[in-house]
Amino acid sequence: MSTKSRFADKLSEVLFLEIKKENIKNLFHIESNEDVYVPVKASSIVGKVKTEKNVGQLPISFFIEGMFYVMGADEKFKFNDMYTNILVNLKDSDKFIKGKIAENIKHKNYEDAYILIKGLCKMEDSVEIYDKVLIIVDELRKLDKSYEDEELQVIEKLKKYGNYPMAYFYEALIMKERGDFDKALFCINTYISSGGEESLDITEFKESLKLIINYEKGKEMLYDMPKEALSLLLPLLDEFGDDATLYYYIAVAYRILENYEKAIYYLNESISIDSSIVEVINELGINYASLGDYKTAIGYLRKAFEATKSIEICTNIIMCYLNNEDIKNAKLHLEIAKKINPEDEIVVQLSQIIK
């Protein structure tokens, strides 16, 4: 559910009392040219108040909370300007609502705290308030990813104030979670250059981003620039030495460079960490085939084929049998390949070779 839909549901729980324009002045000490629907949020009280006649029985604090709540939940609500006018003229309404916000935070009711403080922003547009907004919405994002866009909007608002490096810190966290590591690194560097404290945690965060970026770049360069890829991937073993996939990528680079023995070494290292990665098993088969050890290659390739039923692996098995002069098994696996995809380009070529 989107935050907009969630806030709409929240508003459906609010009772709106129609106050005649003549009574607005008596209650709130301001003039009004129209009747106003004033919200009351307190659910334990609303059942007792059905008409305007006993509105006076309610403490003003219920109206204060209700108006801030509606302004925070729906920034385009018809009476928001009137609510702002009322609240500005009610002494200590801001102090009261700050207490309510703190109370909600204490009880970990972050959503209501967020809605109330968003309403407060309509009256008190300051970096101090938006700092608290950011802290609350960040807690909500940790619980519910649908708040991510809300937090980014708050971050952009804080950037406009200038001299607020924490905005870039929180943006870096979000970008890292999104997998946009380059943007995350840019944000954390901006945080530091803007005056943010470079604590040990921040330094470690920044260095971890650099490692991840090198990992991603290494994978991207693997097939076109294997030497350059290795220059990025090999140093990562110090930090990610228990990552079986990293050993796999290193092995692929060595295989592309035709260093099959080294490739096999790193593939075996990968298997020692995690023996369930099918791509590693297939890669072992390819490397042994490249060394001319077709018997060993077939063993690995058949194991990979059993797990995947991949047409590519099946055709590799056929090629190994052909190179090993085992025509019988080559024909057998060609029939299997035809059942998987008779129109595959390699299958068609092999059908012309194997009669």
From TrEMBL:
Alphabetical UniProt keywords: TPR repeat
Q: Name one Pfam family in it.
A: TPR_8
Query: SMART domains of this UniProt entry?
Result: TPR
Instruction: Cite the repeat ranges for TPR.
Output: 244-277, 278-311
Q: What is this protein called?
A: Capsular biosynthesis protein
Organism in which the protein naturally occurs: Clostridium drakei
